[in-house]
Amino acid sequence: MRIRRPQAPSDPQPGNRPRPGKKRPAPGPTEAERRPEPAAGAVLSGSSAPRPRPGASPQTPSKGSDGTVATGHHRAVGTAAGRRRIAKWPIVTGVLVLLLGLGMLGWGWANNVLDSRTEAQAKACTEGDSTMKVVVAPGAVQPVSAAAAKWNEAKTVVHSYCVRIDVQSFASDHVYSALTGQNPDAIGGIPAAWIPEAGNWGDRLAAARPDLIGSPAEKLTAGYTYIGLGGSAVDEVAVRAAQVFRDFLMQPAQQSAFSPTGT
After folding, report:
1. 143 CB contacts (<8 Å, ≥6 apart)?
2. Which value, to the nearest 10 degrees, does the dihedral of the CA atoms of residues 176, 177, 178, 180 take?
3. Digit-coded pLDDT (tens) for 188-200
4. What b/e readout covers 56-85, taking b as 16+ CB neighbours within 10 angstroms?
5. Are 162 and 176 a contacting pair, CB within 8 Å?
6. Of 4, 96, 125, 131, which is least packed with CB atoms within 10 Å of its CB?
7. What is residue 202's predicted lDDT score, i.e. its pLDDT?
8. How far apart, in whole angstroms, are the C-alpha atoms of residue 103 and residue 91?
9. DSSP secondary structure string, 188-204?
10. Residue 175 reports pLDDT greater than 60
């Protein structure tokens, strides 16, 4: 058997031998190394998601104040975006209308309570009693006395006083002489009202004693005149009560008490 000896490596070709004193240049980058690296977050074609860099921690999606979630690519729609907002002005308007209605109801209730309290105090005669004197011609004393009885029974209130009417009868010429002759004691003092027969008694008294006229003479019936008196001898309550009693006598219920001819 023949044994082959290993052959020594052949010497390199003369052109490939390194020259003494010169270094061989370092090899350049390969084709793969020359390719540009993809930008952060970019997705390569054919891959489903970007590969994280070695040593980099995965990014956690941030959540905005309105409930939306922000990712690396798009703004994801969160719970707040899917909720439809309701306008507030109809609610505010409704509340204001409700408060206005309640305020009006409260004002009406308070006003009614105040009126009822005032009326109750007026009917209670909080200031006490007062007397008003009326001088009447003899022919009208009966219907006027009947009207005064109704007035007194009802406890009619004037200026918070329960005013009682006192009817006295005197002839008209006698009353005129007492009022103009400075002798009112002849008829029991100056009355709050005088009811003489129809005529010019009111004009005569206004010409002679204008200070005694509390209200102008008015026709009460066909046969009688109503004259309200005043002055320092008649207080304010009596002056006002005389006007109210005049209106009371003008009512049909009292007018019917007079004779058909008005006398």
Report:
1. 254, 257, 258
2. 80
3. 999 999 999 988 9
4. eeeeeeeeeeeebeeeeeeeeeeeeeeeee
5. no
6. 4
7. 93
8. 18
9. TS--SEEE-BSSSHHHH
10. yes
3-class state of residue 218 by DSSP: strand
Angstrom CA distances, 40 to 32, 37, 53, stand at: 19, 9, 9
- What number is the average pLDDT over the span 151-177? 95
Residue 28 token pair: 């350049």
CA distances, 130 to each of 62, 104, 215, 232, 249 (Å): 91, 40, 20, 17, 19
- pLDDT score, position 46: 47
Instruction: State the sign of the Cα–Cα–Cα–Cα dihedral 215, 146, 132, 209.
Output: positive
Q: Which helix (H) or strand (E) holds 249?
A: helix 236-249
Choose among 248, 249, 230, 227: nearest CA to 238. 230
- What does residue 171 show for φ and ψ, rounded to 5 degrees? -65, 145
Beta strand segments in the chain, E: 62-63, 69-70, 75-76, 129-136, 157-158, 161-169, 193-195, 213-219, 225-229
pLDDT at 242: 95
pLDDT at 227: 96
Average pLDDT over residues 56-74: 55
